[in-house]
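Q: What would this chain look like folded?
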Amino acid sequence: MNEHKKLFSKIGFNYLLLALLPILFQIILVNIISLWDVNFIKNINNQTVISSLTNYIIILPVFIYLMNKIESTKITETKLGIKKFLIYLCIALTLMWIGNIIGLVITQILGNAITNEIVNPIEELIQNSSIYINLIIISIIAPIFEELFFRKLLIDRTIKYGATLSILLSAFIFALFHGNLNQFFYAFLLGAFFAYVYTKTGKIIYTIILHAFVNFYGSVASTFFNLAKENIVHGITMANIGDITIIILYLTTLVIVWSVGLYTIFTNYKNIEVNDEEREIYLEKPVQTVLLNLGMALFVIYHIFRILVSLSLIKI
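A: My prediction, written as structure tokens:
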């Protein structure tokens, strides 16, 4: 195995550990808490908090330690103007909706083929958890840690192979990590876009904010919208003014964002510039080098297994 395959194998093993170690931490934490109060574990909000602790906060120092064993390259920093940032935000939200539609269509077709309803785990989490939990964890904590895990720590160590490779690898790992088909497609599109923004700006804060807005709109804002729809389903009254306002604001924002996002994507996709000219190392066989190694192969196999389980094609 050459040095480049070894590097990507290390990356694969690191991301496999990023998936497996939180499960171990969660088992330990749940057992400790159960000794104190078993009913605490049964609450969905408490489960979400424990999951956040193990998946993000506890694992972060371990993952940084593992990734710091791989040489990194500093990306040149560039500022984004407010106008450009707002356009990027519209693109991100548009990609989220496009990816959601693709995921819904494919999972519906597949669900009909296997005569089994395919459940979206994140949708279940949003519906069952407190709105405040969704705000704090999904809209604030998750974007910060996921941008560090899947953009900053990964791209800084692969950018020397070219921005295109870094962007696609970031998107692929990010999408697979979600472990289900419902989220795979929008996670891939958003992962690629966030990676593109990071390679262009060198500032992870931009992708964190973009990610936070996307998660907020997909969880908190959509929850308020759905509640407002339910409140006026039996007729409009003076008591529904607040609900009507929420619906109007949500739909107006959707139309504006879709218009700007789609227009920008379709008029500028040919002019997208990826900083591949700054590539230090050229790989003759990038796919084989990046994916056909032990660490990355095990990472991919594990997450394909998770997807098959989520589709009920494998019983555990």
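The mean pLDDT is 89.
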